[in-house]
Fold this protein.
Amino acid sequence: MRYFFHIRHHDEIVRDMEGAELEDAELARQEAVQCARDIIAERIRTGTPLHVDTTLEVRDAEDRVVLLLSFASVLLTGMTASEPVLDRGGHPPLSAKGFRRRQAH
């Protein structure tokens, strides 16, 4: 499936017109984390202002939101592409099918 990685800062959005062909939403999540890390690193390296309230908005080919990933969450957690993304309540985000993954207690 094709996924698009748009960058949103308040009302401004930079649309990914090309997207990337990935097998599933988990690979799209990993790509989003790496993309955010690359953007953050480049802005730090070049001295470009970094707005931590910027969000990477991942959408599928049908324009459904798959993931919202804030730059702040990547910065504050030192998140890597292999780590799970948690929502504000500390739970895994909705999966591509709209169900939360539950951990056994």
Remarks:
- The mean pLDDT is 80.
